[in-house]
Amino acid sequence: MEMIAIERWKRTFKYMRLFLWLAFVASLLCTLTIAGLIIFAKWQGPPPLAVPQSTIFYAEDGTKIGENHYGGKRYWVKLSDMSEHAIHATIAVEDRKFFDHYGFDLKRIAGAIVADIKAMKKVQGASTITQQYARNLFLSYEKTWWRKIQEALYTIRLEANYDKRDILEGYLNTIYYGHGVYGIEAAANFYFGKSARELTVAEAAMLAGIPKGPSYYSPLVDLERAKKRQRIVLHSMVEAKFLSKEEAKQAANEPLYFSNGQQMKTKTIAPYFQDAVKHMLKTVLGLDEETIEMGGLRVYTTLDVNMQAIAEEKIKETIHSQSNIQVALVAMEPKTGEVKALVGGRDYEKSPFNRAIQAERQPGSTFKPFLYYGALQHGFTPSTQLRSEPTTFTLEDGSTYTPRNFNNYYANDTITLAQAIALSDNVYAVKTHLLLGQDKLVTIAKQLGITSKLKQVPSLALGTSPVKVIDMARAYSIIANGGKKVEPVFIKKVTNYEGKVLYEQRPSDEQILDPALAFVTTHLMTGMFDPTLNDYASVTGQSIIPRMTRPYAGKSGTTKTDSWMIGFTPQLVTAVWTGYDRDETIDRTDEKQYAKHIWVSFMEDSLRERKVATFEPPEGVIGIYVDPHNGKLATTTCPTKRLSYYVVGTEPTDYCKDHPTEKKKKKKQKEKDSWLKRLFDWF
């Protein structure tokens, strides 16, 4: 018997040793597997956390002016910008041991398996927050073993490479809350019309209950069912020691006010401007459509919402509601090129075609400042005189061209360059154009940023080649800022959802015009608002002078189909075009004045709170008083005098002799009196 007992003990020991060996091997394999998975996770590196998110556009003051979401509203906010109630509610109901496990809750998994076996169906989930985040980021929702394996591998990579708070932040920014809304920030806005940082306990508990079944537990679908789910979440928060029973009870009884998604909808501000911004994101930054639409970008633009509102208001007030005429407006800072307001039409919903950027229209006389800058380069001065009279020009090819002035008004005498631009004399302009050579104007226009094709013809001086409104605003900005190159700037900065700067605007300091000549050109353009230059006709800005409260420079332009007004102060350039889309002629007198009236009312209201700025001459420019009708140095007997600016060395040296001196006046009067006395005595 003793031998049998010994044999039994030996066999038992043998099996125990085999069991221990197998346990050791299994433990070793398990350890090696875990170590291998960790090494694999580290070797693979941190997986990207980017997900499709709404791109948001901001005005210069931080106002949200629009967003792209295409069926799914998504915003990324930092954990520190979320209500702690939202964080606690989510952890309590989804993964109470989130900060204690390494991606998998083994005890919870075992419990779920037992529950499923007892019910003979899947009744309990065991996915941790990390597992759910991995699924949200990278995987489809198909129920296959391969998907489960991938989810496990991504979970390990997340846990091995990211801090717990990063994972929690990502999860709360990507979970689905129903109605096309992703993430806690979008959910707070959609359901309650507030940000995630403002959520109360009751609101946070309501939202935390939705992801289990977004279409089932949404309070907008079934409020009673959602309230039951809310109470479950509150109970979980009590068990997790995030709330006391009394606090949970108060939250459960707190009335909730839902926005029904209405407050989430932001009124679209400046839609034509936003289209231009998206175009710049493609052409300047080289971003693709998908990144622009759902890349989670934060686009900080140059838009001034106040100026934009003024522009839209003035257009609506000025243009008769029954008129079919269209409009475009661009307001730009001349020193930086920043576009502050842009209107591309009267109604974006009816016509998204952006007339400020896409359309090309004849600029008329607004093209003349480019011509006269070229003339100043080639020896002209504000006092240079040419005859204004009906003239037919014979060209090199034998053809003829006869320009006409507005209403066929001509001086039939010599006029100065200063008068020619103020009165918009077409004969003077064509003579100057032909004297310089027809290629000169094209060269200057291209230098100033005109991108349209220009024909080298005599009528180009009168603005017969179509151009873009945005290009004209840029060209005038270069003149206004003293000749420094600017491009239209719509975007100041672009960041991704993490706040990393992808693009930031850098100003240019390139000088492309002579600053002295640019200033003289600017001062010539103040003439359209100076009645002292009236001669055979009124200055072209006569109708709006009474509404002006500060110095402006500018030029208007009119063709049969187009009406323009472009003008500026040192702070702001604004270009306005009005006309018909289908080349209908502008026949009504009031419609011919729309551009000027929109321009002056916009400029006055936009600059109302700004200090009045004057045009300060740069070095190399001298200001002297001249007789505005002949451009010569004014004398004490000249009835009108005008301060005019010249490049040093080009100022006039001859004095005006058109008006007699006081001494000669008295002598003539005495002679007249004496002659009358003799005549009286004779009778």
Automatic annotation (TrEMBL):
GO-annotated biological processes: cell wall organization; peptidoglycan biosynthetic process; proteolysis; regulation of cell shape
Molecular function per GO: penicillin binding; peptidoglycan glycosyltransferase activity; serine-type D-Ala-D-Ala carboxypeptidase activity
Taxonomy, superkingdom: Bacteria
Subcellular location, record wording? Cell membrane
Q: Which UniProt keywords apply?
A: Carboxypeptidase, Cell membrane, Cell shape, Cell wall biogenesis/degradation, Glycosyltransferase, Hydrolase, Membrane, Multifunctional enzyme, Peptidoglycan synthesis, Protease, Transferase
Outline the extent of the Penicillin-binding protein transpeptidase domain.
328-579
> Which cellular component terms (GO) are annotated to the entry?
outer membrane-bounded periplasmic space; plasma membrane
Where does the UniProt entry say this protein principally localizes? Answer: membrane
Q: Which InterPro entries match?
A: Beta-lactam/transpept-like, Glyco_trans_51, Glycosyltr_51/Transpeptidase, Lysozyme-like_dom_sf, PBP_transglycosylase, PCN-bd_Tpept
Per UniProt, residues of the Glycosyl transferase family domain are 64-237
UniProt signal peptide: none
Catalytic activity, reaction form: Preferential cleavage: (Ac)2-L-Lys-D-Ala-|-D-Ala. Also transpeptidation of peptidyl-alanyl moieties that are N-acyl substituents of D-alanine; [GlcNAc-(1->4)-Mur2Ac(oyl-L-Ala-gamma-D-Glu-L-Lys-D-Ala-D-Ala)](n)-di-trans,octa-cis-undecaprenyl diphosphate + beta-D-GlcNAc-(1->4)-Mur2Ac(oyl-L-Ala-gamma-D-Glu-L-Lys-D-Ala-D-Ala)-di-trans,octa-cis-undecaprenyl diphosphate = [GlcNAc-(1->4)-Mur2Ac(oyl-L-Ala-gamma-D-Glu-L-Lys-D-Ala-D-Ala)](n+1)-di-trans,octa-cis-undecaprenyl diphosphate + di-trans,octa-cis-undecaprenyl diphosphate + H(+)
Q: Which NCBIfam families match?
A: PBP_1a_fam
User: Which protein family is it in?
Assistant: In the N-terminal section; belongs to the glycosyltransferase 51 family.
> What protein is this chain from?
1A family penicillin-binding protein
Q: What is the lineage of its organism?
A: Bacteria, Bacillati, Bacillota, Bacilli, Bacillales
